[in-house]
Design brief:
The complex is a heterodimer of chains A (149) and B (426). Helices cover 42% and strands 0% of the residues of chain A. Chain A is mainly alpha-helical and 149 residues long. Chain B has 426 residues and is mostly beta strands. Chain B has one domain: Beta Barrel (Maltoporin, Chain A). Chain B has a 22-stranded antiparallel beta barrel. In chain B, a hairpin with a 2-residue loop joins strand 20 and strand 21 (371-385). The radius of gyration of chain B is 25 Å and the shape is globular. Classes of the chains: A mainly alpha (149), B mainly beta (426). Chains A and B meet through helix 1, helix 3, helix 5, helix 7 and helix 8 of A and strand 1, strand 3, strand 4, strand 5 and strand 6 of B.
Chain lengths: 149, 426
């Protein structure tokens, strides 16, 4: 491995000390009927901080824009409730249907690329192409772009 | 190096080795979503071709009820076009999206097979293994495998590996370092290291920060900082993001065409953002402001948007979203409006029916193909049958836009869910 990384990792190993908060169960109790509505964790867990700061995981109205920060840091929390299946509608770019088409009837779900995205995508993409790159960055994840690009 | 074949074989081996409990004790979930669509398209040579694609999205999960911590998950999709084949040309017709065996024992998680990795700088599907372990206050995770998305380009010997180590030097701090290496075509495709930090501040405020460094181009590819402050029912956030194109994008044949030139453009983008949102049983609302400060000043842009929705019983909801992108380059300026409604489980006398409608309208400051707007409308209905095991939805979509002067699509969607020995869970 690269020198720099080794140094970073060794450095952090030395500075780290205290134990993390306790472990999580493998699954959120399934007797809790969460339904299809985005959960507000603090409605049930209130201000509790152990084993996690529940409030932080509230699925807020803008959760679509915000979930990435939590997903990268604590994937174990997401896995309490979500199997990989729940992320596929939007993250599986190697399929043909965009999320808003696949769930056209479920208008209550926020989905990226709503409406005529073929026209609008160039405006979004010129302004912030990095946002698109994670999902469409390589040839296989952009099969649907090939007919024009 | 012979690859590709190894993982399915490995996986098959694991499947075979998985303890086969008596069927009565098994906890199995099968979900099948069948989608039939119909519309017309023009190809380069012919017009009014009929597309009648039939999609199947299938997923299965098996969890060992004996509490061994073992579970198996698989999902994929496939398409058969019953109309003119030219519409889809040589698109892929299906794929295994994920298929993995999970083992949880105490603080150990091991996952083998095709899976998505979202960890540190990694955000990809691999055919391989991931192990996560909590050890004396450290969250350790490592993964290695073959990158699924690079597959199929006729080049062998690609692989990816990486890891993440998180720790908590004090109760209010959670910090991590992570790493990812991608080998492609026999050379280093990318190599990134990242550090992230979450810091709980007084008054319920949280600071989140993340920086990613490209060891290949020797520069920071991005920074992302956010301060979240809850104020009564409100969730207020302020953030800053920076992306350096040279270090963030790649510029080789493994990069999708529209992004290939970005690396060499040497641009950079700073995004300043502020959002506020609040949710209650009846009302959800959010507002966002974003300022895009581009190194190419003609792309500087300002975005403001609001979203509101009212909730009724169950999933009943009516909402509106409006946004305005104001860019120094008027080609990128537009106004967006969305109105939607959903009525959950309306009593009709025979069976409860859900109804929905959607409108998305975009107005462009500069004409595109001589049109200055796109209008999309959809209407749909759904009903649950067979004790809610089957849900059928029908919908139509209609679009008037710069690409399709009038485009009508229809869709039938049947979702069937079968569970054994378990409550429905998400």
């Amino acid at each position: 491995m690269k020198h720099g990384v080794t140094v970073i990792i060794a450095g952090t190993l030395i500075t780290a000390a205290v134990a993390l908060a306790g472990g999580l169960p493998a699954r959120h109790p399934s007797y809790v009927e969460l339904g299809d509505r985005k959960p507000v964790c603090s409605d049930c867990h209130e201000d509790e901080k152990d084993p996690i700061l529940f409030k932080r995981y509230n699925h807020t109205p803008l959760f679509l824009e915000e979930h990435k920060r939590l997903a990268r840091m604590r994937p174990d929390v997401c896995e309490l409730c979500h199997r990989q299946e729940s992320c596929q509608d939007c993250h599986a770019t190697r399929t043909e249907l965009k999320p808003s088409v696949k769930r056209q009837v479920q208008t209550y779900k926020r989905s990226p690329h709503r409406g005529d995205y073929i026209t609008r995508h160039r405006l979004d993409a010129r302004i912030d192409p990095a946002r698109c790159y994670r999902c469409h960055g390589n040839p296989r994840r952009s099969a649907s772009c090939r007919r024009c690009h | 190096m012979k690859k590709r074949k190894t993982v399915p074989i490995l996986l098959a081996g694991f499947v075979a080795a998985a303890p086969v409990s008596p069927a009565t004790a098994a906890d199995v979930t099968i979900r099948s979503e069948t989608i039939a669509r119909g519309y017309e398209r023009d190809s380069a040579t012919e017009s009014n071709l009929v597309a009648l694609p039939l999609y199947e999205y299938l997923s299965v999960a098996y969890e060992d009820p004996e509490g061994s911590g073992l579970s198996l998950h698989a999902g994929g999709w496939g398409r058969k076009n019953l109309g003119d084949e030219a519409v889809f040309a040589d698109n892929e017709t299906g794929e295994l999206l994920y298929g993995y065996l999970d083992l949880r024992r105490g603080s150990l998680l091991a996952r083998v097979g095709r899976q998505d990795i979202f960890s540190g700088p990694a955000s990809e599907a691999i055919d391989g293994a991931r192990i996560a372990y909590r050890w004396r206050g450290y969250d350790l995770a490592g993964f290695a495998g073959l990158p699924v998305a690079l597959e199929g380009d006729g080049i062998d010997g690609d692989y990816v590996w990486g890891g993440r180590m998180a720790f908590s030097p004090a109760a209010e701090i959670y910090a991590a370092v992570s790493y990812k290496y991608v080998e492609s075509n026999g050379h280093r495709d990318s190599e990134d290291a990242a550090a992230d930090l979450r810091w709980d501040l007084p008054r319920g405020m949280t600071f989140t920060g993340r920086s990613t460094y490209s060891l290949k181009s020797k520069g920071f590819s991005g920074h992302d900082l956010e301060l979240a402050l809850p104020l009564q029912e409100n969730d207020i956030r302020a953030g800053f993001e920076r992306i350096s194109y040279e270090d963030f994008f790649a510029a080789d044949d493994k990069t999708a065409a529209p992004f290939r030139y970005l690396k060499d453009s040497g641009g950079s983008l700073n995004i300043f953002r502020a959002t506020i949102s609040r949710g209650s049983e009846e009302l959800e609302a959010g507002a966002a402001l974003r300022y895009y400060d581009h190194s190419d000043a003609s792309r500087d842009s300002f975005y403001g948007g609001v979203t509101v929705s009212w909730h009724g019983d169950g999933l009943t909801q009516t909402g509106a979203e409006a946004g305005r992108m104001e860019s120094d380059d008027s080609r990128n300026s537009f106004t967006l409006l969305r109105l939607f409604t959903y009525f959950d489980q309306l009593e009709t006398g025979i069976l409860p029916v859900s109804l929905s409608a959607d409108l998305v309208y975009a107005l462009y400051d500069e004409r595109i193909n001589n049109e200055d707007y796109s209008l999309f409308l959809s209407a749909g209905a759904g009903a649950k049958l067979m004790q809610e095991a089957l849900e059928v939805r029908v919908s139509i979509g209609y679009s008037v836009d710069p690409y399709y002067s009038h485009d009508l699509t229809s869709m039938i969607n049947a979702t069937w869910r079968w569970q054994k020995n378990g409550e429905v869970e998400e």
